[in-house]
Amino acid sequence: MSPYDDRVSDPNEPELPLPPERIRVITGGQAADEDGLDSMQELERARNDGLQYLMPLPKGLDETALELFGFFVYELRVGHDSSRWCLAHARHGPPLRVTGVQHPAPPLICQAGRSHDAIEVAAPFATPVLNGRILRPTSPRTDLWALLYAQVRQIDGKSWRNVLLARQKLTRPLADPNRDHLHGANVLDFGTGKFDQLQVTRTLQMLGLPPDSPLSVLTVEVIGEPFASSERPMADPLGKFLGEVRILRTSPLTPLQGICIQT
């Protein structure tokens, strides 16, 4: 997602923030010592058996943070919690350093509107950030696609099914010199596209569905394939080439407002 020739410096990996503890006097019955307890972030239990744990997000980040487009280096240690008395330097065991950890990407938001002529879709490209600096190149290295679905009730009436009507690659608007020079600013870059309403109505009729069937749209962001060529184009990563291109993130289904369809 960032320029291939953009060099990112190695992250700073400081030592654990622990007090020196060169000399300690310990007496019987003294209060519990919690030194070093907050020097590391505790993992979250995934199951009660204590065998599986979840990696929490770094402190200060939530699931929408743009920093989550990047990779992280973690240091894992087995240690004592507050239920066991110990010194700060005895609290944690030897480190296990893990590199290249990637959290789930920030959610993708699909914006969609509908008129009598077209269904318009917009979604933001991934914007990797490091230390407040945007690393997204002028031309994004990811591709955005929009998928248009019709909601159809099963014959038994117990559930609804999504029927794919069309998919389309979203395009980036023409470069704006007043915006593209803002390297490092917190600017989102959007891809946009349209579905022709007349073609959508024809597709519904061809499938034997009512022209006023409820519709919804979702957007998918895939990582561009740098090895695509004229002999092996990635023109349809969500169709013929599904599974050969990495899907970075997918938006929720966004329902479209109904309009009066003339038949």
Task: Tell me the structural class.
Answer: mainly beta
The span between the termini is 45 Å
- Helical amount: under 10%
Tally of DSSP helical segments: 2
The biggest beta sheet reads: 5 strands, antiparallel
- Count of individual beta strands: 14
Q: Give the tally of structural domains.
A: 2
Radius of gyration, Cα only, in angstroms? Answer: 26 Å
SSE string: EEEEEEEEEEHEHEEE
Average predicted confidence as pLDDT: 83
User: Could you say which overall geometry the principal axes of the C-alpha atoms support?
Assistant: elongated
- Low-confidence spans: pLDDT under 50, at least 5 residues? 179-186
What is the strand content?
25-35%
Detailed description of the structure:
The chain is mainly beta and 263 residues long. Helices cover 5% and strands 28% of the residues. It contains 2 helices and 14 strands. The strands form 5 sheets. Strands 9, 10, 12, 13 and 14 form a 5-stranded antiparallel beta sheet that branches. Strand 5 and strand 6 (118-124) form a beta hairpin. The longest helix is centred in the last third of the chain and has 10 residues, at 197-206. It is elongated, with a radius of gyration of 26 Å. Mean pLDDT is 83; it is low at 179-186.
